Amino acid sequence: MPYYVYRTMDLGAIRRLEWIAEHPAYPEASVHVKALRAAAQPAEERVRMIFAENQLMAEELLSETRPPEPLIGDDY
């Protein structure tokens, strides 16, 4: 399974995904992502790398909203 690199921007309730590249191995993808993050505008966009079966699965994983972590013990 390849590694996919995306640029993401949160526009309110909508997350915009822009495909950048696909890499067959982690080291290549990691170097590429680190270079893009160094040049990115941190307030406006994020560069994400995801491991998925195909591009559609990668976009689905990046688009999902995670539930908040449960409050346990003295954390709340």
What this model shows, in words?
With about 80 residues, the protein is α+β, with helices and mostly antiparallel strands. It has one domain. The chain contains two helices and three strands, in the order E-E-H-E-H. It has helices at about 25-40, 55-65, and strands spanning about 5-10, 15-25, 45-50. A three-stranded antiparallel beta sheet has the order 2-1-3. The longest helix has 14 residues, at about 25-40. It is globular. About 10% of the residues are buried.
Provide a concise account of the structure shown.
The chain has 76 residues and is an alpha+beta fold. It has helices at 26-39, 55-63, and strands spanning 3-11, 14-23, 46-51. The protein is built from 2 helices and 3 strands, in the order E-E-H-E-H.
Q: What form results from the Cα inertia axes?
A: globular
As a percent range, the share of helical residues equals 25-40%
Let me know the average pLDDT: 88
Provide the domain count: 1
Poorly predicted tracts of residues: none
User: Which structural category do the helix and sheet elements fall into?
Assistant: alpha+beta
Overall number of strands: 3
Give me the Rg, rounded.
15 Å
What is the overall number of helices? 2
Q: Which strand order spans the largest sheet, edge to edge or round the barrel?
A: 2-1-3
The H/E string reads EEHEH
Q: What percentage of amino acids are in beta strands?
A: 25-35%
Q: Span from first to last CA?
A: 40 Å
Query: Strand count, sense and closure of the main sheet?
Result: 3 strands, antiparallel
